[in-house]
Amino acid sequence: MKIIKNAFNNSCRRMVYRQAGFTLVELMVALVIGLLIILGAGQLFLMGFQTFRQTELLSNKQAALTFATELLIRDIRRSDNGAVAWNDSSRTLTVEFDSSGGGDGCNSGQRVERTYSLSSSSTPQEGFSLLLTQTCNGAGGNTEPVVSAFASGGFEVDDSGGDSGIYIVTFCLMSEPGNTECDNNSEFDFRAVNRSQAVTAP
């Protein structure tokens, strides 16, 4: 009876001893599984970060496009008959209208002249800027950047339909930071109608 008890106690001790830790193979398997989980989480984080940057870039492009388009189309609409001029050599658009004394920076009744053009220099992150020069009765002439993220040569106006009051404004935005070349996928056309010209056109 004692022999059987001793044998049972010895086998229990051996079992307890064997389960007291991990073997080298078990540790290596656990390390490999842990590394796979860390690599997967890192890849997921990287993809999330890249998606966030692309979304931010698209959001900036959309904001730039919306703001510049609204500003230009509004000015073309309210300009006087024949007071919209695109200079192809200097790549500038000049719009004239009488101030209503609102938020255009001039006193009521003054002649407002606005000239739009692209900046001559760019930055890798911001690209080229759309510049606005405004005068009131020929005085002033302050030039301010309106919005950035434009590609090289990213501002053009087709005034071939100007007699009918129809102008096609083309914007080309940066496709990604650091690339200021105009990409066809980042080119957008907008039509602006000058009301007074459209009404008087034959």
Query: How many domains would you count in the coordinates?
Result: 2
SS field, number of helical segments:
3
Query: Low-confidence parts, pLDDT < 50 over ≥5 residues?
Result: none
Q: Cα distance, first to last residue?
A: 123 Å
Please provide the count of β strands. 7
**Structural class by helix and strand composition:** alpha+beta
Helix content: 25-40%
The profile of the biggest β sheet is: 7 strands, antiparallel
Shape: elongated
Rounded mean pLDDT is 82
What does this structure look like?
This protein is of the alpha+beta class and 202 residues long. The chain has two domains: 47 residues; 138 residues, no CATH class. The chain has three helices and seven strands. Strands 1-2-3-4-5-6-7 form a seven-stranded antiparallel sheet. Strand 4 and strand 5 form a beta hairpin. The longest helix is centred in the first third of the chain and has 55 residues. The protein starts with a helix and ends with a helix.
